[in-house]
Write a structure and sequence with these properties.
Elements lengths: L1 E6 L3 H12 L4 E5 L16 E5 H9 L3 H7 L2 E3 L1 E5 L5 E5 L9 E5 H13 L4 E5 L3 E6 L3 E5 L4 E9 L6 H5 L4 E17 L6 E5 L6 E5 L4 E9 H8 L3 H11 L7 E16 L3 E2 L2 E3 L5 E2 L7 H20 L4 H4 L2 H33 L4 H14 L4 H10 L3
Parallel strand pairs: 1-2, 1-11, 2-8, 5-13, 11-18
Antiparallel strand pairs: 3-7, 4-7, 5-6, 9-10, 10-11, 12-15, 12-16, 13-14, 14-15, 16-19, 17-18
Helix pairs in contact: 1-4, 1-8, 3-4, 8-10
Bound molecules: flavin-adenine dinucleotide.
The site of flavin-adenine dinucleotide (FAD) has 31 residues, from helix 1, strand 2, strand 3, strand 12 and helix 8.
């Protein structure tokens, strides 16, 4: 019998499994879709994330940061946001006395960095490349795998993404919607060396963003309607480049298109983060508009919060006592209180930003440009906003 069974070995689930094992719990983790091993000559993946300073700290505490750094990543020191180019807000890490504002990293490499450390931890059993066929969580959790193995654990953690089977099995409802726009991710190789700035321009059609990657590679994100994205995806690389040059801001240096992929955008919030002995973390609990690159950072905050309430319990009780039903509902509730409101605020802030910037109503347009211009000179307010976005 395991103490915890973590379903889903994405970035969030693997961080959770490792954190629990480091506290001395016996942990099972299940991941059906194992990421390919890292090879330095591989081109960058389509799925990349802006990893905040707070997420970096968690990954450092878990021992995975040095593993990720040994592969590849790109720190960014500056961040710019604008609507009209003359009304631009520029953030610089020196303003908050930090060496950088965050890193852009391929999601797969964050996973692989965590996996390397998990492999060295005898408290974790990793069930790889196996689909889950049945989940039941009554007195204890029972997860059946496609090869017939049954994993039993005192507690079940759903880290299996937006379409969480754990959430469904626990009968936890959700609220949310799919946005009418989608995101087109375009991987490019620029003629410049590695850049240290990420920027985003808002337009009525949707934002256009630049995220720097290692060795002059970069990722562009272009928000559009589903129909426009289908149209853009039908272009040859050369035609897409011409189209990008016509629409993207002049800040974009010369480049070559390498690859592209589109992503539907969904807002989803679980009505509760736990039920009985089942708890949800990361995208299984919430998915957010990726406008400000907060999704996985919120997931890592869930991990840190859950580890923190358990750590606190362990100062008062034995491991076995902490996992008794009379105890766990209390610390699970603390976790929910700590995280649900914070995630909701961030989701709503993204929606406000999204609707404010995609609105062409003249007074609103003037107001938001004035806002961006003022924000650039707002001293402490600007620094606090910056720290909040960095997760500090
Ligand atoms: C276009 C786009 C850009 C984004 N940019 C950023 C960004 O810059 N910064 C940021 O913080 N976030 C960003 N995000 C969000 C981020 O990608 C997600 O929040 C993050 O991947 C969630 O991690 P997770 O581990 O919770 O879930 P997932 O990444 O969805 O991982 C879930 C894992 O569970 C596994 N799984 C699924 N079903 C089962 C099952 N039944 N049994 C077992 N395992 C299962 C899957 O194989 C997967 O490995 C972006 C999202 C999009 C769409």
């Amino acid at each position: 019998m395991f103490d915890f069974c973590v379903v889903g070995g994405g970035m969030v689930g693997s961080a959770m499994a490792l954190g629990l094992a480091n506290m001395g719990f016996k942990v099972a983790i299940i991941e059906p879709n194992m990421p390919a091993a890292f090879e330095p000559e591989q081109p960058p993946d389509m799925r990349v994330s802006a990893i905040s300073l707070t997420s970096e700290k968690l990954l450092q505490e878990l021992g995975a940061w040095s593993e990720i750094k040994n592969m590849r990543l790109c720190p960014y020191k500056r961040l710019s946001v604008w609507d009209k180019p003359s009304c631009r807000t520029d953030f610089n890490c020196t303003e908050i006395e930090q060496p950088h504002l965050g890193h852009i990293i391929e999601n797969r490499l964050v996973q692989l960095g965590l996996y390397t450390v998990i492999e060295t931890n005898s408290k974790v059993v990793f069930y790889k490349k196996l689909k889950v066929t049945e989940i039941a969580a009554v007195d204890s959790a029972r997860v059946t795998l496609e090869d017939g193995q049954v994993i039993q654990a005192k507690m079940l953690i759903g880290a299996d993404g937006g379409h969480s089977a754990v959430r469904d099995a626990a009968n936890i409802g959700v609220q949310g919607w799919q946005y009418s726009q989608q995101a087109l991710g375009i991987q490019i190789k620029t003629t410049d060396s590695q850049q240290d700035i990420t920027w985003q321009q808002f337009t009525p059609e949707g934002p256009m963003a630049f995220l720097p990657l290692y060795n002059g590679f970069a990722s562009l994100v272009w928000y559009h309607s589903a129909a426009d994205i289908r149209h853009l995806k039908s272009f040859s690389k050369a035609k897409l480049k011409q189209h990008i040059l016509q629409h993207f801001p002049a800040d974009l240096v010369d480049f070559e298109v390498i690859d592209m992929a589109s992503f539907p955008l969904t807002r989803m919030h679980a009505n509760q983060y736990f039920k009985g002995n089942t708890v949800l973390i990361g995208d299984a609990a919430h998915t957010i508009n990726p406008l400000a690159g907060q999704g996985v950072n919120l997931g890592f905050k869930d991990v840190a919060a859950l580890l923190s309430v358990i750590r606190e319990e362990l100062t008062k009780h034995e491991h076995a006592t902490v996992l008794q039903p009379s105890h766990f509902s209390q610390w699970l509730n603390q976790y929910q209180v700590a995280r649900r409101r914070d995630n909701l605020i961030m989701m709503s802030a993204m929606d406000l930003l999204y609707s404010t910037f995609s609105n062409e109503h003249l007074p609103l347009k003037l107001l938001r440009n004035l806002g961006l211009k003022l924000a650039n000179h707002a001293g402490p307010i600007k620094h606090n906003a910056m720290k909040y976005a960095m997760g500090l």
